[in-house]
Automatic annotation (TrEMBL):
Highest taxon of source: Eukaryota
Name of the protein in its database record: pyruvate, water dikinase
Lineage of source species: Eukaryota, Fungi, Dikarya, Ascomycota, Pezizomycotina
Keyword field contains ATP-binding: yes
Alphabetized GO MF terms: ATP binding; metal ion binding; pyruvate, water dikinase activity
Assigned EC number: 2.7.9.2
Pyruvate phosphate dikinase AMP/ATP-binding domain mapped to chain residues: 30-296
Function text: Catalyzes the phosphorylation of pyruvate to phosphoenolpyruvate.
Originating species: Bionectria ochroleuca
SUPFAM superfamilies according to UniProt: Glutathione synthetase ATP-binding domain-like, Phosphoenolpyruvate/pyruvate domain, Phosphohistidine domain
Length: 667
């Protein structure tokens, strides 16, 4: 990091060799390999460091203090096991770190306690599970000055999306004060997403997501020699973002630089000094979940019968589970946990590892995507919904629920029991086709989840679903907020727009882009294009292409003229069927009459495809028919369609239908 000009806190490292020296030459004998747990830790804490090791630590501390211009520098003492965070195992949080340490005696004591932490119950349990020897390991201790983050902030960032493995973004979590609250999952942090590919363009600010977390508490330094303490955050802190856009961008650039240096996705910790406003990277290690997953296998989960929604939170993983709840509020109560139950608790830390291994799923009140509960749940492959805020007092032990993390960024806890179906796709065996197969996305939060599917792009993102799922408020309610009389609605808007002084900015920030829809004639087309141009969206400028939905018979009849104003068509087969046959698509009484394969509908589809091809205009179709009816897919291929857009869970099936149709056509 020093070579890449990334600020890291000035410090010293005591090598792992020194621990091995203790085995052989210190006050500890070989019985350390035969005794476990408390007895071994006691040996460390009662033992003394070899004289030359202690002298080297003292000299380094005095040198570090002198460079900072003080007699006794306030430092952090961080442990790092030599086996820590290999690509196939995460040892995060299992060895101790000590903060706010001052003076030589306190430093030497902290070093002994770091070494002893190799033999905590959680560390022994994890190594036993992973098959690591308890004796063939060592520990290095990093010592650096404390970053005064109580007036700034701290957090964790990943150079990929932690749930889907999507490697085109940087994920940053941030909380006020010392980062221990976030790692332990006792606070719901801010979350920022940055799109990597646009970071090199200084004109752009590619922050694609900003979520203001609750951040109800923070950890701060006590007075000199006093312990670190937890205090409530102020109302202003809870309602504001920890990082500004410039700081978010800086951290994202550093994440990309560190990832490039190490050659693999990275998990990093950062801190912001509240006195100098400087940002520092304080730790970097390999990401341990997606680096060991089989990229060729894509597995999806579907809940067949959902009860009412009991809770929502952040989804960890992408699976689902149905089971019975078991409340545990302290790891001391581990003996009362029923194996394969769903664990419900306020938050977890490394002491919970033995219990978490026995759980089928996890629900917590607090925590973000980088909390300990999230990290361990991912590695264990169990679904977790974290940061629910009220799980421990809204749910109850013995209750049957469904945890679903298969629906995007938001995790759901449903009432009842349900069958969970799975679908496994071997991506290596998917055939190549001429016709582009694209995806329909109803929920923007689920976009990352489908990135591994070899689709040819997004064929349809419905504006109404974008507003419903991602924005969650009508834009006019933001514009006329002061005129609202419904106090409950105002309260909900206040919660959604935390961090935004001007409420319409929330909508603009969340809004991505849409599609001109249901244009009945040329007059409406010109009006829509005019409004877009007035707001800086002019067809042809900077490569902007504008497509129009083809959902009305008039669109088919006027298709040749429409091509002068638009770059392509997307056939909405459901609405085109409804408006061609005069059948309400949502009516159960008329369901038998609604048929996308009706001769009239197919004639209109074939006609508009032919017109588009003659005019050199792209045309695709979005709808369920190609996945439900192989013969409809063949009809589209025979008609010369450019693309077919389907729901992600139908992707593999439609691709097989299309390849069969293309092969039949070529024979």
């Amino acid at each position: 990091m020093f070579c890449n000009n990334i600020p890291r806190v000035l410090g010293r490292t005591r090598s792992a060799i020194r621990l091995r020296y203790l085995w052989q030459n210190g006050s500890l004998d070989f019985k350390i390999f035969r005794e476990m747990g408390h007895a071994v830790r006691s040996l460390f804490l009662r033992g003394t460091l070899p004289a030359h090791v202690a002298a080297a630590i003292k000299a380094s501390y005095r040198e570090l203090s002198a460079k900072e211009g003080v007699d006794n520098l306030i430092i952090a003492v961080r442990s790092s096991a030599t086996a820590e965070d290999l690509p196939d195992a995460s040892f995060a949080g299992q060895q101790e770190t000590f903060l706010n340490v001052t003076g030589v005696d306190a430093l030497l004591n902290a070093c002994r306690r770091c070494y002893a932490s190799l033999f905590t119950d959680r560390a022994l349990s994890y190594r036993q599970t992973k098959g690591f020897s308890h004796t063939d390991l060592a520990l290095s201790i990093g010592i650096h000055r404390m970053v005064r983050s109580e007036g700034g902030g701290s957090g964790v960032m990943f150079s990929l999306d932690t749930e889907s493995g999507f490697d085109k973004i940087v994920l940053i979590n941030a909380a006020w004060g010392i980062g221990e609250t976030m790692v332990r999952g006792t606070v719901n942090p801010d979350e920022y997403h940055v799109f990597k590919s646009l970071l090199s363009d200084s004109r752009l600010v590619p922050i694609t997501e900003k979520k203001c977390g609750e951040k109800a508490i923070k950890m701060v330094h006590g007075s000199l020699h006093a312990a670190i303490r937890t205090v409530p955050t102020s109302k202003a802190e809870r309602a504001s973002f920890v990082l500004n856009d410039g700081e978010i961008m800086q951290l994202a650039r550093w994440a990309c630089t560190i990832e490039k240096h190490y050659g693999c996705p990275m998990d990093m910790e950062w801190a912001k000094d509240g006195i100098t406003d400087e940002l520092f990277i304080v730790q970097a290690r390999p990401e341990t979940v997606h680096s060991r997953s089989d990229a060729a296998i894509f597995k999806t989960y579907k809940v067949s019968d959902k009860g009412r929604v009991l809770l929502t939170g952040l989804s960890i993983g992408d699976s689902a589970i149905s089971g019975r709840l078991c409340f545990i509020l302290s790891p001391k109560d581990i003996d009362t946990f029923v194996d394969n139950s769903i664990l419900v608790t306020e938050s977890t830390d490394p002491d919970w590892v033995p219990l978490m291994k026995r759980a089928a799923g996890i629900i917590t009140d607090h925590g973000g995507r980088t909390s300990y509960a999230a990290i361990v749940s991912r590695e264990l492959g169990i679904p977790a919904v974290v940061g629910t805020m009220k799980g421990t007092y809204q749910l109850h032990s013995g209750q049957d629920v469904i945890i679903s993390c298969a629906e995007g960024d938001r995790g759901f806890v449903y009432e009842g029991i349900s069958k969970i179906s799975t679908n496994t796709i071997d991506l290596q065996n998917l055939p190549q086709v001429r016709t582009n197969i694209m995806l329909n996305l109803a929920n923007p939060e689920a976009t990352y989840r489908w990135w591994r599917l070899p689709a040819d792009g997004i064929g349809l993102a419905r504006m109404e679903f974008v507003v419903t799922n991602a924005i969650q408020v009508h834009p006019m309610a933001l514009v006329h907020y002061d005129e609202l009389k419904d106090e409950d609605a105002k309260r909900q808007i206040d919660e959604l727009t935390i961090g935004y002084d001007h409420k319409p900015d929330y909508f603009i920030d969340k809004l991505s882009h849409g599609l001109a829809t249901l244009l009945r004639g040329l007059g409406e087309a010109k009006k829509v294009l005019g409004v877009m141009a007035e707001n800086g969206l002019t067809r042809g400028e900077d490569g902007l292409q504008i497509y129009v939905m083809c959902e009305i018979p008039s669109n088919v009849i006027l298709a040749a003229i429409f091509t002068k104003y638009f770059d392509g068509f997307s056939i909405g087969s459901n609405d085109l069927t409804q408006l061609s046959l005069g059948v309400d698509r949502d009516s159960s009484e008329l369901a038998d009459l609604f048929n996308e394969q009706d001769a009239a509908v197919k004639t209109l589809i074939a006609q508009v495809i032919s017109t588009a091809r003659q005019m050199g205009c792209k045309i695709g179709l979005c709808g369920q028919a190609p996945s439900d009816h192989p013969e409809f897919a063949q009809f589209l291929v025979d008609s010369g369609i450019d693309s077919i857009s389907v729901s992600p869970d139908s992707f593999a099936l439609v691709k097989k239908h299309v390849v069969a149709s293309e092969q039949a056509r070529n024979q």
